[in-house]
Amino acid sequence: MTNTRILGDFHNIISENDTWRIGGFPLPDGSFWEYREPEAVVISRNGFLYVRAPLSRSHDHVQILDNAKHMYYSKEPITVPENTKVSFELQIRARTKDTNPDDLYDGYVSLNLLDFSTGAALDFFTNDKQYASVYGVLPFPGVDVPDTDETKYFCMFKESDEHFNSNDFNQYKITYDRANDEVIFFVNGHEVRRETNVPIKFNQFTVALGIMTEQDLGPDGSVSVHGQTVIGEWSPVTVTTEEE
Measured between alpha carbons, how far is residue 53 from residues 34, 94, 166, 171 in Å? Predict the structure, then answer.
């Protein structure tokens, strides 16, 4: 049996409708760290989401809070039952201004699939020249990551421009096969990466659309913001679930 769901409704996104909410994490002092750039321009047009964000937000002590600058989470997670294969597919166009042209991680647009029950994540990161597929288990604030005899936290990036249309929309798809512990990444219909023997079971996915950086904190704190601007455009996300 195959079921399809569309995550769109961008025309209501600034009012935090039933589909999307602003991303972020609760802090130990009871406050909430929002992934929201104060000067971001947010537009819904022809069913697509457009965000132009001059980057200004940073965090000097927690890497994950420093990385994402402006991000929306799906309001409800997509559950992954046993013996199920689930795919997430959308179009993204990314453009940047005043970023380091040789460094994808100086400012990019993202699709993130986040499992807050395990700390696991599957992602695509892209700018106007290349993309990275990403697979890992991360120390999200407030998330209990299962103990293991293997490496507990990891994040594996794979950069490429294979099958990529520069300065244009590209089609991205991530498929998770729970029964076979496998993740497959596609760009414009081409398989570009396959991870087998995935050591953790994904239970659910919060879908996130973001504008991000990925720069290690320095001795004096964040170094991720230096006047760059990132523009992201996303189509609605098609979620397809197949019971095997």
Answer: 14, 12, 20, 22
